[in-house]
Amino acid sequence: MKPNIRQAAAGALALTGALLATSCKPPKGAIQKVESGTAEKVYVPPGKKDEFYNIVSGGFSGQVAVYGLPSGRMFREIPVFSADPETGWGYSEETKPMLETSHGFQTWDDQHHVALSQTKGEHDGRWIFANANNTPRIARISFDTFRTEEIIEIPNSAGNHSSPFITENSEYVVAGTRFAYPLDDEGSNPDVPISSFKENFRSVLSMVSVAPDSGRMKVAFQIVMPGIDMDLARAGKGKSHGWMFFSCYNSELAHTLLEVNASQKDKDFIGALNWKKAEEYVKAGKGRKSRNKYLHNTWDHHTHSASSKVEEEVVVLDPTELPDLLYFMPCPKSPHGCDTDPTGSYIVGSGKLAALIPVFSFDKVQKAIAAKDYEGEFGGIPVLKYDSVLHGEVKKPGLGPLHTEFDGKGNAYTSFFVTSEIVKWNIESLQVVDRSPTFYSVGHMMVPGGCTAKPHGKYAVGYNKITKDRYLPTGPELTQSAQLYDISGDKMKLLLDFPTVGEPHYAEAIPADLVAPRSVKIFKLEDNKHPYASKSEKDAKVVREGNIVHVYMTAIRSHLAPDNIEGIKVGDEVYFHVTNLEQDWDVPHGFAVKGATNAELLIMPGETCTLKWTPSRVGIAPFYCTDFCSALHQEMQGYARVSPAGSDVPVRFGIGDTAPK
Ligand code: RUQ
Ligand code: CUA
C-alpha cells in the first residue's frame, strides 16, 4: 500500500527528529531566545552605514581587523605583524623594512591588544596602537589610511602582553614583560641556568612616548623589577592621570609548571607606577643607560616606503633605589585584567582564579602611600596593605573574571571565562545588577569607548574563545566569534553573533563620525617622491645595471606600460616598480608575474610599489593586473622574455606602437 502524503510527512518528521536527537541537537543552553525586533537593531540596510568602527586584535593572525557595529560586518584586515600576500605587505620591497627586528626579518607575531589614541581621555580618531606579544613590539596604524606606519621593538623585554594601553593624552603607550627573563643588554650575561630564575630573571615595564603631532614612538624609559610576569595594564585618568596600573602574576617566581607553581599564593599584585615621577628622575639623570640593539621601523608618506633604523640605548630606572616611583597592591589570585573606571577613581583587578572582584580606590592608594601603610615589600618595592587600598569587593560575581569595561553610567561589565557570562555590576555599590550568558568562554569584552573617560556606551561585545555549535562546522577548527549585546536598557540583550578572523583579544570601538571623514581616498601623484616612480606613461622604461634590472612600470585602466619586455636573463634580479597612475578612489591595480616566489603587489592610486623577481627559467613570463579594475581588466596583461644567462638579447621594451618589433 502506498503511504499517503500525510504519513510520508510524519515519517520524514520522525526521521528529522531522530537525527536531531542523535547528531544535531545543540547542548543545553546553546539556544537563547532573542526578542522579536532584534534583527532590526543590527540590520544595516543596503546603502546605509554602521554606527561604529570596531577595531579588533587578531591574536595569532598577527593582524588587526575592522568590523562595523552593529552589523558585525568585516571591512578590512589590516596587515601589521604578519606578512600578507593579498596586499604584498612584507613582500614588496617598500614594506619589508617594517617587519625587520633585531632577530632578523619576521613575518608573524601574536597580536593581542589595541589602543586607540586619546585626547583628554577621549577618542580622537587618529591612531590605532597594537602590540606584538612574541617578539616585543608596538605598531602604530593610521586612521587616515588604515595602514601600519610605524613599528618599534621593545628592548629588555620578552612577551609584550601588557601593552599597548594608552595614557589620557596619548603621552605614552605601555609595554610590560610577560615572560621574565635575564636581561640581554650589552655587558650582561643572559646565558644562565633557568633554575637561577630568582637571581637573574627580571621584568621591565617600558613607557613608550608618542609624539603629539606625528605619533612617532620612542622608548622613553623603563622600570626594572623582580621577575614577576606582567599581564595587563591601564593608565590612570582624571585624578589618577600620571599613574599606570598593571597586573602581575607569578609572584611565586616559578620557572616551571606555572599552571600549578604560579598559583600557590593567595594574592599577586597590581603595580602602580607614578610615571610623572619617573619623568622627573629621567630628567635628573637618575637612570642607567642600557645599551641595546632594537629596531625602529617607520613609513614615509612621500616615498611610500619604509625604513628601518637601529636604536642603541634606553634609560632604565631602578625603583628599589628611587623612592615614590612604584608600589604594589595585593590582588587576589593571578590577576589578568586591570581596568580603571571612566573617572579614574577605581582600579578593578580580575583574578583569574578568584571568586570575587577587588576594586581599589585611587584616593585610598594615595592615602596609604602618604601614611606608608605597607604590609611588607616585594623585591624591594613597597606593598600597600590590601584593606587600606580597597574600595570593596564584588562578591560571588562568577568564576574566572578576565576583563572589565565601563558604560559611563556607573556600571562595570566583567567577562567571566569559566562561567561564560558577562556580569554587570555597579561600581559604587559593588552589587551585581545583571548577567548574560556568552557562547562560550568569553575572553575580552568591550563597550565602545569603555576604556576612556567618556564611554560611548550603547553596545557591549564579547570576544569568545570557544564557539562549539554556534556556526556551521568547518572541520577541526571552528570560527572565532564575537557577540553583540544591547546595553542601552537595564538588562543586557543579546543581538548578534558574528565570526572574526584570528583570535580576537582586546578591541575598541569608535564612532564612525570620528574616523570616516579622515579617510584618505588617493595618494596624490604629484606628491609621490618614490625614487623609482614613473609619473606618466612616457617615463616607463627598463634600465639594466649589471645583473639588476629596474622596470619602471605604470598602471592605468586598462594596461601596464611597458607590456612587452625583452633582454631579461636567468640570474637577473628584476625589480618591477609599478606606479598606479589613477587618481580615483577605490581603483587599485594589482601586479603579479609567473614564477615569482613572493606575492602580488596591490598598488593604491598614486602609489609606487616594487616586486622583486628572480627569473629561474628561460621563456616568456606573462604578467598581469590581479585586481578586477575595469571591463577590460582581463586585457591588463603583458609579457617578459627571459633569455639564458649570458645571452646577448638586448634590453627592449614598449607598448603598442613602441613594443619591440
Ligand atoms: S588577553 S582574552 Cu591578551 Cu585577556 Cu586575551
Ligand atoms: Cu588593473 Cu585589473
Essential attributes:
single chain; 661 residues; mainly beta; 9-stranded mixed beta sheet; 6-stranded mixed beta sheet; 44 strands; 9% helix; globular; disordered N terminus; binds (dicuprio-$l^{3}-sulfanyl)-sulfanyl-copper; binds dinuclear copper ion
Structural description of this entry:
With 661 residues, the chain is mainly beta. It is 9% helix and 42% strand. It contains eight helices and 44 strands. The model is unreliable at 1-27 (pLDDT under 50). Dinuclear copper ion binds at residues 555, 589, 625, 627-629, 633, 636.
Biggest sheet strand order reads 6-7-8-9-16-17-12-11-10
Alpha carbon gyration radius: 28 Å
Shape: globular
| Low-confidence parts | 1-27
The helix content is under 10%
Ligands, deduplicated: (dicuprio-$l^{3}-sulfanyl)-sulfanyl-copper, dinuclear copper ion
Number of strands: 44
Helix count from the secondary structure assignment: 8
Structural class, judged by helices and strands?
Answer: mainly beta
Distance between the termini: 81 Å
Question: Mean of the pLDDT scores?
Answer: 94
